[in-house]
Amino acid sequence: VKAGKRGTFQFYDRQMSEGLDDRRQLETDLRRAIERGELELYYQPSVVLKTGEIAGFEALARWRHPVRGNVPPTTFISIAEECGLIHAIGEWSLAEACRKAATWPDRLKIAVNLSPVQFAGPDLVGMVRGVLERTGLPAHRLELEITEQMLLDSGEATLAILRDLKALGLRVAMDDFGTGYSSLNYLRSFPFDRIKVDRSFVTGLGSGAQNAAIIRAVIDIARALGMRTTAEGVETADQQHVLSLLGCDEVQGYLFSRPVPAEEAQALISRWRPEDRR
Ligand code: C2E
Ligand code: CA
Ligand code: CA
Ligand code: CA
Question: Start and end of every EAL domain (predicted)?
Fold first, then answer.
C-alpha cells in the first residue's frame, strides 16, 4: 500500500512539473513571438439584427507556434497574464486593431478585449490615449470589452479607471455577461455602453424556455439602463430568429462569419450584402 501510494504521488508530481516546464517553455516562446511579431489579429464581424449591416469587428489574437501550431488565445493570454507579458500584448493588440480600423469606413467600430491584469498595470488610460493619438482612430469608434470576472477583486480603483477611459470618448462593453457572480451589481456601479450575452445562453436557446427567459431579462435590463446588447456565439438561423424576437441589437457568431484575417475582413466589408443577413 505504501509503495502504491508513493508511486501514485510520484506520478502526479512528475505530471505537475512537466506541466510547469511546459508553461515555462511556452512563456519563453511567447516572449520571442512578440519580439518577432508572430502574433496576429483576426477580426469577427458584429451584425445589426434589424438591418443585417456590419456594425464593426472584434479583434481576437492568434498565435501560430512554429512547432505546436495554433495555441488557443485562452491559453497564451492566461500565460501572458501570469508573467506580465499581457501589458505588451495588450498594447500591441490595441494599436494593431486601431490602426486597421482607421482604414475602414467611418461607420465601423472596433472592439478590443482588455485583460483585468492591464487594470493593475501602469497607466492604462495613458496607454489607450497614446494609441488613439498615434493611430488617429476617433475614440468613439473604439469599444473596450471587459469580462465581469475582472471586476470581482476590484473596487473603486477599477471603477475610476473605467470612468477615465470613458472620458476619452470610447465605449465600454461588459463581456461574457451572466457567467460571473455579481453581474447585476456591476451594472449598478458602472455605466457600460453594451452588454454581451455569453455564448452559453445563446447555445442553450434551442433547449427549454429558461435560456430565452434569461436573455429576455438581460435585454430588458439593458434597455432600462440605456445599454445596447450583443449576443455572442450565434451559430444557427433559429437562434438569430429568437434573438431578433427578443429585441437583441447585435449578433456575432459563426452563422455570419468566423474571426478572419485582416485582408478577409476587408473583403467582407466590401462584399457584404445586408439583405442576405436579415
Ligand atoms: P471572447 O472575448 O468571449 O471572444 C469570443 C470567442 O468566441 C472567440 O474565441 C471567438 O472566436 C469565439 N466565437 C465567436 N463566434 C463563435 C461561435 O459562433 N461559436 C463558437 N463556438 N465560438 C465562437 P477565441 O478567439 O478563441 O478567444 C477566446 C478568448 O480569448 C476571448 O473570449 C477573449 O477572452 C480572449 N482573447 C482573445 N484575444 C484577446 C486579446 O487580444 N486580448 C485579451 N485580453 N483577450 C483576448
Ligand atoms: Ca470579447
Ligand atoms: Ca465574450
Ligand atoms: Ca469568453
Answer: 23-273
